[in-house]
Amino acid sequence: MTIVKSNRIESLDILRGLVMVIMALDHVRAYFYFGSFFNDPTNLETTTPILFFTRFVTHFCAPIFVFLAGTSAYLYGNKKSKPELAKFLFTRGIWLILLEIVLNNLIWTFDLGYSMHIFQVIWAIGLSMVFLSALIYLPYKTLIVIAAVLVAGHNLLDGIIAEGKSFTDILWYILHQENRLVLGPDKIVVLHYPIIPWVGLMTFGYCFGKLYQSDFDQALRKKWLLALGIGSISLFFILRGINIYGDLVPWSTQKDNIYTMLSFFNLTKYPPSLDYLLITTGPSFLLLYLLEDVKSNLTNFFLVFGRVPLLFYFLHVLVIHALAMLGLSLLGGNWRDMILTADGFINAKLIDYGYPLWVVYLIWIAVILLLYPVCKKYMIYKASNKQKWW
What we know:
This protein has helices spanning 10-32, 49-56, 61-77, 82-109, 121-135, 140-153, 167-175, 196-208, 218-242, 257-264, 274-291, 297-307, 309-330, 342-346, 357-384, and strands at 116-119, 179-184, 187-191. The protein is mostly helical. A three-stranded mixed beta sheet has the order 1-3-2.
């Protein structure tokens, strides 16, 4: 498998590509699994171990996506002045926020009336970049402290609960409390990614970029990766075992050992708890440790997706949504029900829709194989046309 030459760091792109392929599994599940529009796959009262695992493995995606965005910012800034980097981060952040509001919402819903505004990971990355554009002027050690406070300390705010629709309530939903606002029969706003821990995680990623400077010793970097990986995973098990701090919902003994284990790993994503971030970033550091000197057809496969992340993100959601609409039509349903509107969710139009989990996995594989040649072609074009801003 031929991969076009690039100055990018392959291990970072491989990891990004891997988590994006896994991310697609969660999005296929969201559009195809039975009852997925209204049921939580981590609800221990209704889930199964395989469904829970299908959701849990995709938890790695958003944290790594955000973390590596910070790392990429650091590496980009090595060739730029601080004002140039700040301008890049600010403008790129605003651009991503606009893409979330205008394009991503449309792809996810197919609703030209925009009756639902869902703020997801693209929004979180964009807004975090805006904050990072100011933070980069601070000393490196200060940035590490700020990142640690935001990531490790934000669970202290879990007890602050807003319930209204005032300006301060909405501001709190943006900062730290996931919420869905029903503003009328034809308007819903879903704030999925409260920003405080994501800003901290991206700032950590920015600081992490120092390990990948061209003059940084590889052996030392691998020692850091190993230490960060083992340390993060160990701290997760310690904190989760103590069961006092680190996640909004403590684990508890369930009907059997399997479901007790599921409870142990049933972590809060919105906003991402300290425990959640430890168990998702820890294994990722170990993967980077292992990928440092590995090159094969398999890593080249993931590399393709990791080098065109924005294209893949928008394209895979579009394809998955279109396939769900086609499938609904072929099975005798009303394809218009797959135009996801506020009315459709309020009245639960798709409450009985869905397919078994094995269908989800087959469609996931098909989507990845379908998009691979498109992403590879664009990767080559992108590498050959670096002067083009888009």
